[in-house]
C-alpha cells in the first residue's frame, strides 16, 4: 500500500544519495557515510520510503561464507521515487541562498 | 630536611603518575574488551524491538552495516542508533498495520518454524486436556494448593516463556555468527 512520506532534510539527503546510484543500488552504511545521517535516523527513513514504494531494496548478490562478511541490503530509487523526490525538490523555493518550504 | 621532603614529594608524584598511567591503560583495555559485547547486546536489543517479520532482514543488514565500520567505538554508536531506529520502525509499523497484524504475524511465524510449531501444539493440547478434565470432571488433581485452572495458567505462562527464550537464543546465535564474520 502506498503511503505519504514526510520529506525532511535527512530524507532529501538520502534521496539525493540514492539518485547518484540508480542502477547499482547503495547500502545503508554507504548512504550514512556520504550524508552523515546517523543510523537511528536513516533506517526509519528508508523503512518509510520503502513502504511508500519510493525506494526498493534487495540483497547483494554474494555468498556470505565466500565473501567472509554478511550480505549488504542495497537500496534503489524507483520511478515513483524519482517523480516524488523531484516534486518535493520543486516545492522548495530559493530564499536568500537557502532552500525553504513553500507555504 | 627540605631536600628530603622535596625528594619524597617528587618520588610520590612520579609513583602516582606511573600508577595512574597503568590504571588508565588497564581501564582502557578493559573497556576495549567489553565493546564487542556491548555491540552484540545492543544489536540483539534492537532486533527484539522490531516487528517480527522484519527481524531476520535487519539482523543481517545491520551486521553488514557494522562490518563497514571497523572502529569498535563507532560500532557501539552505530548499534545504539540501531536501537533507536528499531523503536521508530516498530512505531511506524504498528501505526500502519495495527497490533492485531503483529499478533497474526507472530502466530504465523510459530507455524513456520517446525520446532516451535510442535512445542506450541504440545502446549495447547496439554492445556486443552487439563481444561477438558476440569470441565467434565473426568479427572481431578488432589493438590489442595493448586486448582486445575492455576495449573493451566502456569502451563500457558511456562510455554510462552520457553518459546520466548528459544527465539532469543536463536537470535543471539545468529547475531554472534554475523558479528564473527564481521571481525
Strand fraction of chain A equals 15-25%
Number of helices of chain A: 5
Summarize the amount of helix of chain B as a percent range.
over 70%
Largest sheet of chain A: 3 strands, antiparallel
Instruction: Please state the CA-atom Rg of chain A, rounded to the nearest Å.
Output: 15 Å
Architecture overview:
- The complex is a heterodimer of chains A (103) and B (183).
- Chain A is 48% helix and 19% strand.
- Chain A has 103 residues and is of the alpha+beta class.
- In chain A, the strands form 2 sheets. In chain A, strands 1-3-2 form a 3-stranded antiparallel β-sheet. A two-stranded antiparallel sheet of chain A has the order 4-5.
- The relative contact order of chain A is 0.18.
- Chain B is mainly α.
- In chain B, 87% of the residues lie in helices and 0% in strands.
- Chain B is built from 5 helices and no strands.
- The N and C termini of chain B lie far apart (59 Å).
- The interface between A and B is medium-sized, with 26 and 25 residues.
How would the blueprint of this fold be written?
The complex is a heterodimer of chains A (103) and B (183).
Chain A: H1 9-20, E1 26-27, H2 28-35, H3 39-51, E2 55-59, H4 64-67, E3 73-77, H5 79-90, E4 92-95, E5 98-101
Antiparallel strand pairs in A: 1-3, 2-3, 4-5
Helix pairs in contact in A: 1-2, 2-3
Chain B: H1 2-49, H2 55-67, H3 72-112, H4 114-136, H5 148-182
Helix pairs in contact in B: 1-2, 1-3, 1-5, 2-5, 4-5
Offer a few descriptive terms.
heterodimer, A: 103 residues, alpha+beta, three-stranded antiparallel beta sheet, two-stranded antiparallel sheet, 19% strand, B: 183 residues, mainly alpha, 5 helices, 87% helix, elongated
